[in-house]
Structure formats: C-alpha cells, structure tokens
Amino acid sequence: MINQLNVRMIEEFRYLPYEIEVTFERAHVFPTRQKDKGYHIGQSINHSLTCPEFDSFPFVPHSLPANLGQSSLEQASFNCKTTVGYRPIRTDYHGDMWRKTVTRSAAVVENLRKSRSFSIAASTSSIPGPCIVHKRGADILHDPWFNKDTGFPLTERDRLGLRGLLPPRVISFEQQYDRFMESYRSLEKNTEGQPDSVVSLAKWRILNRLHDRNETLYYKVLIDNIKDFAPVIYTPTVGLVCQNYSGLFRRPRGMYFSAKDRGEMMSMIYNWPAHEVDMVVLTDGSRILGLGDLGVQGIGIPIGKLDMYVAAAGINPQRVLPIMLDVGTNNQKLLEDPLYLGLREQRLEGEEYISIVDELMEALHARWPKAVIQFEDFQFKWAFETLQRYRKKFCMFNDDIQGTAGVALAGLLGTVRAQSRPLSDFVDQKIVVVGAGSAGLGVLKMAYEAVGRMSGTTPNPQFFLIDKDGLITKERSGVDPAASPFAKSIGEVQSIGLQEGSDLLEVVKKVKPHVLVGLSGVGGIFNEQVLKAMRDSDSPRPAIFAMSNPTNNAECTAADAFKHAGDNIVFGSGSPFQNVVLGSGKSGHVNQANNMYLFPGIGLGALVSGAHLITDGMMHAASTCLASYITDEEIQQGILYPSINSIRKITAEVGAAVLRAAVSEDLAEGRGEVGPKELAHMSKEESVEYVKRNMWYPVYSPLVHEK
Ligand SMILES: NC(=O)C1=CN([C@@H]2O[C@H](COP(=O)(O)OP(=O)(O)OC[C@H]3O[C@@H](n4cnc5c(N)ncnc54)[C@H](O)[C@@H]3O)[C@@H](O)[C@H]2O)C=CC1
Ligand SMILES: CC(=O)C(=O)O
Ligand SMILES: [Mg+2]
C-alpha cells in the first residue's frame, strides 16, 4: 500500500510568493472519531505546536473524490495547491520547515472539515517539524536536546540570540557527522594495542561527550553505526562503565530517587524538565548484568537501554527518562569507597522497600499516565514480586524476565528449525537451563506456555533447571515458588541416573540436551568438559546459549563453544563475540541472544497502541514476530536473529505485532488522533507503517523560540 505525502515547493524566492503543491497518493481516509475535533493529515497535525512566525494561508484541495469518507476505510489520491504570500524575511526556512507548515496548515484542515467528515492519515515521518524552544542564547548551546553546535544557520543564530556565541562558519550536519567519525576512527587508531578496558572506556567517553553536548548528532552516529557502537553504549562496555561510574561521573543524566526522598516523590517528579515522557527505564541497581549489586552506579543500565530505545524504536530522546531508585547497597566495597555517589547504607528490605517503589510508581503515573515503564536489573527477590504487583495496574514490564524470555524462545524455536524439524517438535526438545533467577525462570515459563499451546495438554516437557546447588527437583526444600513449577520429579530424574543437586556436567552427560542455556551470571561455567559433553547431544545441531553479560560473565566464549562442542553447533551469547573461523575455513555464526531484539519493540508497540497494560499475549506476539523473521536459508547457516544493523526495521515489526496483540485483546486505546477504531481497522502492513510513522529520526529541526 502506498501511503504517501509528497510536498513540493515549486519555487523559492527570497521574498514572495511561494507556490506549494501537496500530493496525497492513495492516502488512507478514516471517518473522524471526534467530529468536533477537526481533521488531521498525518501525524503532524496531531502535535498542537504552533509556529508564531507563520500565518495560516489559503490552501485549497482540489480533485477530491466526491464520495471520500463515506465508508470506514478508503484510499484516495488528490492534490492541494496554493500560492502563499507573506513575510519570509528569514532565508533559513528551507524545505523541511515549509513541508511541515503545509501539513499543519489550519486552512487545509478547515477546508477538509467543511467538505466532509473524515480525517486523512498520510505518511509524514520524514518531515521534521519545527521544534519549540523556551530558551535563548547560551542556554540553548548548553542544552543537548536543542544544541546544533556549529550547525546553527545564521538566521537561526539571529532569532535565538546565538550570534557571536559561535564561530562564524556554519558547518552542515553531514560535515559534523564526518568530523565526529574521523575523531572516533583516530581514537581507535591511537589506542591500538592498549588493554581492552582502556580502549572501551575511551570509546565510551568520546560518545558520552557527544551525548552530553548534541543529542541529534549523537543519535545519528549511533543509528548509522549501531553494530560498532552498541557494544560501547550497551553490553559489554556499559557494565564496565557502571563498575567505574563514580569515577567517570561528570554530569547527571536521568533522575535519582533515594530512600531519603520518601514522601517527596510526587513533587520531585515535576523537577524533570520535559513535559512529556513516553519511556521510563527504572532500576534499583541490585543486579547489574552479571556484576551483582552496584547500587547507584547501575544508572548506566537505564541510560544504555534508553539509548537502544532511541536508536532501535525511534523513541524521541526528549521523551525518555532513565531512573535510579537508590535504596542503599549491600556491596561492601562501594559502601567503603569515599567517592561512591549513592546512599552509603544497607539496602532497604521488606515493607520499607516496597512502599518506596509504590510511591515512585504512583508519582510517575500521576505525571505521565501514558508512559511505559520498564523494570531493569532488579535482584531476583524483587523482580518477580514487583512484576506481579504492578503489571495489572501500570503499563510496565520486566525486561529481564519477559524481554529475555521472548528473545530466548525465538532462539529456541530457531534451533528446532536448524535441526530441519517442524516447529511442533519443540514439545520434544530437551533443554537444560543453567540459572534459576529472573532470566532463567522467565525463559522456562514462556517455553512451557509455548509447549502447552502446541501440545494442547498440560505440558510436561523435557526441561531441566540448574542453580548454584545443582539440578532442581521436587525433593529440594525451600525452592522459590517461581521455580517450583519447573522442579523435576525425583522419579523422572532417577530414571536417567540423576538426582537432586546433580551437577551441570552430570546433567549434560545424562540428559544429552538439544539445547544448553546459560543465564547464571557465572563466566566460564560451560567449561571444556561440559562443552565436549554436548557433542553427545541428541540433536544433530546442538545449541549453546551463553547468555550472561557482560562478556566476562558469559558461560563460555564463542571460540571455545565451536572448538569443544563441534563445528555444527548453533551458538548465541548475550554480549557480542566475533564470528569464529572454523577448521573447514567456514564461519561459525555468533548470534547475539540479547533482549535488545525485543524490549524496544515491546515498549514502542505498547506506547503507540495506547495500551494501559502489557500482557503475556503482547509478549508472545513480540517473540513470535522475532522468530518468524529469519528465513530457512539463514537458519541453516546457524543464524537465529537478524543482524543488529537492521534492528530499527525489526523493532518496527515487533512493535506492530505488539500493537495488533493489544488490539485483539481490546487494550489498544489509541494515541493522539489515532483512536482504537482506526487501530482496529489497520491491516498488518498498515500497522507496521503506522509504527514507523511514529518513530523519531535525528535531523536538525528548525528551532522556534517561544517564551
Ligand atoms: N542475554 C540477555 O538478554 C540477558 C542476560 N541476562 C544475564 O543473565 C544472568 C542472570 O540474570 P538473572 O537471572 O537476573 O540473575 P539472578 O541473580 O536472578 O539469577 C542467577 C541464577 O544463577 C544461579 N547460579 C549462580 N551460580 C551458579 C552456578 N555456579 N551454577 C549454576 N547456577 C548458578 C543462581 O542460583 C541463580 O538462580 C546475568 O548475567 C544477566 O546479565 C539477564 C537478562 C537478559
Ligand atoms: C541484557 C540484560 O538485560 C541483562 O544482562 O541484564
Ligand atoms: Mg537486564
């Protein structure tokens, strides 16, 4: 389906007039939901931004089909043309600004409104609108949301009081981009041969400095170089950054709530400068990757996750909010560190802890009731409890439990295909999960549900769960309620020569699993013996997922997995590894089995659907969408997930799948001018287009000052 808005400025003069033609090609036409609200063309009308420096002008649509808007959903092509004459005394109002102005024209809307009862959704995603800024002069240069550095056009410098505050030459966005990439490449060259941690931190610093100075340029370089930069702003380097956060700290980012703020959060939340927030990532720093309790230093994780939201899901960076809830730390080293920036006291527990999380959630909901809240890196005992407590009340999810599960399930289904077996054979797969924490249990729960759906009976799959005390059976006392559904009966394990607490090697030898999944946080636990035992797997294509992060905590390296378990394995890891050159000269493909393939789409889908809850059905839709993304040919090469280079495309598909699931569960309340009816009428392709239209892309918008 073509759903396009073409705006062409026919002639541009320094003064008057302008002739502008707008062509809607097979635009989608919906009956208007709220008749008194007028009509919109594309998303842009949605924003109630007004540009004080423009007057509205007559804009007459012609060639409108006579019967437009009569049925529920139609396509139409028509043109609008006008000659505009007014005072364009600034010459920097070039194409993009005009286009946006045209689409926002009140007169267009008014003309359409008079003629018929409909609204028109047209693709306007590539059209940057003017951005209202409430500050002037040096304040703008110091605000990374608006700063363009040397990229401010001269007339904008005039309007915003920037003249004289910048060197006179105007540098284009492209030149700024090239300049940054050149510095980055020289840094790579200059740090060659230095220890990995030094190089990684140097890379992080240069990116972080840009992030702090000019967000538009930062996200442009991030999006265009996501494969190279994701390992710097996300795992593994983000782990190193969190470990060294107190020393690296220069400027705050996000919000910090602490146990000292009890009773104040409802007012504190209004200290955040943005009026709108779409995505919140919240941590209490208690289990940062596989690095344990890092207290306030864990703020790096919400920042990194939200960078991925901007890069992959096109969430507007002015509408994201990383939050650290500092309730103390049990990390003795940090407590004794005089430079530690968090509360130097033991973690709150029990009722005291939960009441403070309650208070923060209420405050967030009060100010931004439509925001999606992602819980990240909470220790096991609070991860499940907070998920249960809030998921029926707020639009939230736990990424470690649910996001990871979706990605892992997509990978597990891929491994069935890699064995050239039908997906329904998933019910017979033998899977050993090492790590019975938030992530491991989340994966098992989703895998059980998938088996249940496939077999149509109460599932009793061949899944085995191991924690630090070995194989978990029903004989074990004090098993956490979240783990007990996955504890094997003692009879069942004895029948294959195992017992309560059997160790990993023994389990692998006796079970001969099709898949070995590591979510233990223990680096190297898949040692040579364990990997060699996987050679006797019952699968022709054994799969090994060393999903723990960061790299040092991975259960094994990619090279070791291929070396010891064999060239025919399928391999995935939470943090990136290079593909492995095999003895045959072929390449052993390394999949990045990381929840980054899903959480951006889950958040985006929930947001644009206007759902007020995130259900298991929406999670399942996300996972299924990811699983179906890969072709049989790719699967045969051991590829289970798409390249990170196409993460924006994947996220749009995942977001749309989540949206459609929300619609089918009657949860989609719509967003802005696009209501539940419009959402319900969308085809699969239209839902993907709609999600894409809602994605932000980094371009310099013309800045318009408003007091
Ligand atoms: N790749 C991805 O997308 C994701 C990876 N993870 C990673 O998974 C790891 C675990 O995360 P959570 O489940 O949240 O942690 P958790 O602390 O809730 O659970 C860790 C589990 O590992 C078990 N364990 C510890 N030592 C063990 C040993 N020697 N042998 C067997 N089991 C052992 C513990 O008993 C516990 O059940 C972390 O490293 C994290 O980075 C988590 C979420 C997503
Ligand atoms: C990837 C992630 O969420 C974790 O390792 O915790
Ligand atoms: Mg996590």
TrEMBL record:
Domain annotation Malic enzyme NAD-binding: ranges: 401-663
Stored InterPro entries: Aminoacid_DH-like_N_sf (IPR046346), Malic_enzyme_CS (IPR015884), Malic_N_dom (IPR012301), Malic_N_dom_sf (IPR037062), Malic_NAD-bd (IPR012302), Malic_OxRdtase (IPR001891), NAD(P)-bd_dom_sf (IPR036291)
GO BP, sorted A to Z: malate metabolic process
Chain positions recorded as a divalent metal cation binding sites: E376, D377, D400
Cofactor(s) this protein requires: Mn(2+); Mg(2+)
Principal location listed in the UniProt entry: mitochondrion
A Pfam family of this chain: malic
Subunit structure: Heterodimer of two related subunits.
Name this polypeptide is given: Malic enzyme
Naturally occurring in which organism (per UniProt): Lactuca virosa
